[in-house]
Structure formats: C-alpha cells, structure tokens
Specification:
The chain is α+β, with helices and mostly antiparallel strands. The chain is 58% helix and 19% strand.
Length: 227
C-alpha cells in the first residue's frame, strides 16, 4: 500500500494512523503540520489589529504536531502512555496567556492534533473551516464600539471643579459619560471619563480652547468594549 493509499484510507474511512505503522504515522505528522501552518496564518491574519506575538504564533505552529505525536505514542504503547501522563502532570507551563482569543487558538491547535492522531481528519478539517469563518467574522463585524477614555488636565478657575468647567462641552458632544476618576494636586485638577462620541476632533478642540484646560487626551481603549 502506497503513502497516498494510506492517506485516502485515513481521510475517507477514518482509520487510526497507527494501524498503518510507519506510513500512517508519517501521514498523521504531515497532516498535523499542514493544519498547524494553516492555524499559524489564521492567527497572523486576525492578530494584525492587536498586539501580535511572533513567539506565541510559533508555539501554535508546534502545538499540533507535538500533540499528535504524543497521542500516537500513547496509542502504540501502554507503558509509554503512563509515562506521558506522568510527565505532563509534572511539567508546569508558566507562560500566561493574556488574551482570551489566544486561548481559543491554542485549544484549536491542540484539538486538531488530537483529531489527526485519532484518524478523524475530516472532523479536524471541518472544525478548522468553521473556526476560521467564526474568528474572521467576529474580527470584521463591528459588533461593539471601543470604549473612549477622555483625560482632561487643568485648573478650576471660577467654577467649583473641572467637571463643571468641561460639563457643557462634554454634554453637547458625548453620550454615556461615566466618571473614572477625579483628582487634584495643588491648583491643578484632573478628570478621567469613559465616553461615547462621534465628534472626536470637535470635542478635543472645544475642550482645548477652554481657558481653564491645559491638556486633553482621548484614547481608544483596546480589549474592552461598550454596548
């Protein structure tokens, strides 16, 4: 039986790669590498808008083949499977995954490695297609608006506080205003608000033109959204 016959048997009929010995294992490793490369480029595409971690993406590239190799080893030898379980219980992974979407990608890569090693290639391919559609769709569609953080620094002037100084301009240009913090140091005051506005340039210009305001900063907060 040729290599392509083995690939067809596994892909079409769902046989375990370990049944075909060396050629089955080679086919499974090749398939896991191909799916891992696919996931690698999906993460690179989605991660372009946020902080992209090249080292994490390389870890995704290796997670699938390593998982497939471990599952193939455990299916071949009962003693080796006990050793793998014991080793995994001892090893502690200290690298924290900061972004929730990164956790989805690492689970996706590990799951594909398991599907490939178990001979369920069609499930792995279907899951990859569906995950690609979902991740790209959620990345493209504007399902929510990014939070805007408005920081104003200045002095109070004749009014009681900086919030009253800027109140008219903020109420005219913003909605959903929530106070994050207010501070005062000597004669200088600070005001930090979470806002929604479509008039970013007009808002900052009008606030900057107030005689009591020294500086204005408007930041789009990444990672959190408002509804």
């Amino acid at each position: 039986m040729s290599f392509f016959d083995v690939v067809y048997k596994i892909l079409a009929e769902g046989y375990a790669p370990s049944e075909y010995k060396g050629m089955g294992i080679a086919a499974a490793m090749l398939a896991s590498i191909i799916l891992s490369i696919y996931i690698y480029f999906c993460y690179r595409l989605v991660g372009r808008r946020s902080f992209y971690s090249a080292s994490y993406n390389l870890a995704l590239l290796g997670a699938g083949p390593v998982t497939a190799a471990l599952i193939l080893l455990m299916s071949q030898n009962a003693i080796a499977s006990i050793g793998v379980v014991g080793a995994l219980s001892i090893v502690r992974l200290r690298g924290a995954v900061k972004e929730p979407l990164d956790q989805v990608f690492i689970l996706w890569s590990v799951a594909c490695g398991i599907f490939i090693a178990a001979g369920r290639w069609r499930i792995g391919i279907i899951v990859s297609i569906l995950m690609t559609a979902v991740v790209i769709l959620m990345d493209i569609l504007p399902l929510s608006k990014a939070s805007l953080i408005l920081s104003v620094y200045g002095h109070e002037g004749e009014k009681a506080n900086l919030r009253k100084v800027c109140g008219e301009v903020i109420s005219r240009n913003c909605t959903g205003v929530k106070t994050i913090s207010e501070g005062k140091l000597g004669k200088r005051s600070s005001l930090v608000l979470r806002i929604r506005t479509k008039q970013r340039l007009r808002l900052t210009n009008e606030l900057a033109n107030l005689p009591e305001v020294d500086s204005v900063t408007l930041v789009e907060q990444t990672g959190e959204v408002s509804y």
